[in-house]
Amino acid sequence: MQSVEAFYDQLSSRYTELISRCVPRYEEIFFNVFYYLPEDLRSKQILDLGCGTGNLTAAALQHFPDADIYALDLSAEILNECRTRFAANPNIYYHQQDFSNLNFEDESFDLIISSIAIHHIVDEEKAKLYHKLRQMLKPGGVFVFADQTRGINEEIYQKHITRWKEEALKLGSTEADWALWMDHQNAHDYHTPVGWHLKQLETAGFSEVDVIWKNIMWAVVWARK
């Protein structure tokens, strides 16, 4: 079975093209990640968790051009794409790390962001990750992430998948593109209901949690320390 790292190494040069054809309202997801940030948040130190080819990093730079951004991903090839993309920016730092072994000090970040990445780890690891991320945030810091989620029951979940395929084909995905994503999903994705994420974030000690946007199976979840 191909690993998650190998899958994204292989797709690194085509990732943005493929994801834009696969995820409905992709740019709207990014808009909502930043729109709901508190007005009093000082976003000087930002962690992009599972940065991919840097699409969310680029959006962060539009909002916070002077911030130090730490772009983290498991895939070396994906990180190389980021390095090339942001070669002129000296305030982006690259980290090849697994989510289960984050090597940052407590209270290092004002803001932690993530896009369509956390579903690659099993629920037990997600819960541990939320505890770790809270420790890594400064007091008052925010963790906001966009991800694929599961329906509360199998019927809803399967209808999500059906609608997702319909929307992906409208965006220009081919049957071959769809088969690629489904093969990857069946091997490596662990979708979890939105309510589960909220409960785990509360258990991790976040003082406020919310779902601020949702479309089909994609949700943007917000949590403040």
Question: What is the structure about, briefly put?
Answer:
By secondary structure, the chain is an alpha/beta fold. It contains nine helices and seven strands, in the order H-H-H-E-H-E-H-E-E-H-E-H-H-H-E-E. Helix 6 links the parallel strand 4 (109-115) and strand 5.
Descriptive notes:
Helix 6 packs across helix 9 (194-203). The protein is globular, with a radius of gyration of 17 Å. The chain has 225 residues and is α/β, with parallel strands linked by helices. The longest helix has 17 residues, at 154-170. Strand 6 (208-215) and strand 7 form a beta hairpin. It contains 9 helices and 7 strands; from the N terminus they run αααβαβαββαβαααββ. Strands 3-2-1-4-5-7-6 form a 7-stranded mixed beta sheet, sandwiched between helices. The mean pLDDT is 92. 44% of the residues lie in helices and 22% in strands. It has helices at residues 4-11, 15-22, 26-35, 55-63, 76-85, 123-136, 154-170, 175-188, 194-203; strands at residues 45-49, 68-73, 92-96, 109-115, 137-148, 208-215, 218-224. The protein starts with a helix and ends with a strand.
Order of strands, main sheet, comes to 3-2-1-4-5-7-6
Poorly predicted residue ranges: none
Q: What series of H and E elements makes up the topology?
A: HHHEHEHEEHEHHHEE
3D shape: globular
Taking all Cα atoms into account, the compactness measure Rg is 17 Å
Q: What level of helicity do the residues show?
A: 40-55%
Structural class by helix and strand composition: alpha/beta
Number of helices: 9
| Average pLDDT figure | 92
Beta-strand proportion:
15-25%
Q: What is the first-to-last residue Cα distance?
A: 38 Å
Biggest sheet character: 7 strands, mixed
Tell how many strands the DSSP assignment holds.
7
